[in-house]
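Reading a protein record of the kind used here takes only a little practice. The record below shows the convention in full.

——
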Amino acid sequence: MQKYQVAIYIRLSKEDIDKGYEESESIKNQRDLLTQYVQNLGEEYQLVDIYIDQGYTGTNFNRPSFQKMIQDIRIEKINMVITKDLSRLGRDYIETGEYIEKWFPENNVRYISVTDGIDTFEKTNGNNDIAPFKSILNDMYSKDLSKKIRTALHTMQKQGKWVGGKTPIGYTKDPNDKNKLIIHEKEAKIVKTIFNMVIAGEKIGTIKNYLNENNIPTINQSRYHKASFWENKTIKNILQNKVYIGITQQNKRSRISYKNRKLKQNPKEEWNIVENTHTPIIDKQDFEKVQKMVVVQNYSRNKKKNLYLLDGLLVCYECKHKIGIRNKKNNYMVCNHYRRNSKLKLCTSHGFSYEQLEKQILECIRNLFLKVEKEKIEFVIQNSKIKQNNEKLQKKLKQEIELIKNNIDQIYIEKLNHKIDEEMYQRLLKKMQQEIKQKEEQSSKLKIAQNHLKQNSYNEILEEILTLKHPTPEMMKAVIHKIEIHQDKQVDLIFHFKK
């Protein structure tokens, strides 16, 4: 009889906690239920480990304990996974289906969802057939919950209530009302000092140096005891923040979707702006005066007078920050970290002539390409990141489309067996067909892009790179990964390929 090394997986999301989860969903109750379940299975089932993710959403699988469990499966420490129900494993029906229907079987892992009655090693278990349908419902639940939370937050924002996490320097949350800002007197003095220095005619860099030299703590230092220092950008953000005149501006950024937690900038018309929501620290006239001063004006970093061939590739070897090119002293290079914080002695200038470096780099590459086989360079181009990413996306889209089609077949069977009504079937079918259409359109665009790259012929690109007759920044980025500048002016040229 086969021996099983069992993993119990437990998850409780922040949303579950915030909305007041049922006692049966708690970490303790999930653990008690599942450990008792394993004990009842018999001696051939050995509980190896319990993996717990608390405060993590089920809409993606980037959870520390889940990923640790996956690693343990890869080293064959685990060959059986048990969860209380399917939603504890995940709420994204595509990725959940990938694990249950593909990844677990490929790695000879048995999966059991206790309350759903799912057991992937029991071929005659009818509950296995409805797993995709349950995953879709779990996914729809997450989407609906996310929408309700977002709507509630927007309503509170429009009422002028503070719903953010970290409060701006100078303010803290009212202990009697967490959605209201009150002045933090000690921090407010720092804010007033910054505004007063600007009004007195001081430059941002002078203010930064004053704060650092006088050991005036940053937020990270005072609140979280983390080592940090004042930077120009931090000071400018404070000077431009209308929170200091009693105005709350929220919804400046939002998540891409309920499945993707990355943030995107929202257009200003979508911001929720409410006046007189809390006590101001700065007088409105002083604030408006500061906004008109040159030191606070925004400027576009993209509007450069000169476009340099090696822009973005130059890196400081010692501190790993970018090296910038200054329009002084024959386009002099300098470490950005040193330039911004020279008085703190966090790095050294690493400075010398950019024009001299560019000339040497081009000469080095031309000499190198004379010795390199044409086929090798062509291989690098054909297997560039763009092509790899395209192929990876194409493969993922194909898998996702196939899984959605399988789920359509499944819900049709559910309709025939009268487990779902016609209205729900049509609603789910329409949703899935829209997803297939979107993914097929995305796949089509990727194919067109890849064919266009091929039709522009690698030979033309290859000829340009090998001769460097008309080098461009894009061409340099296609060949060079980075250029590291040492303190002693040694230069390390690191390519995307091995010589």
Remarks:
- The chain has a mean pLDDT of 80.
- The radius of gyration is 29 Å.
- The CA atoms of residues 380 and 497 lie 7 Å apart.
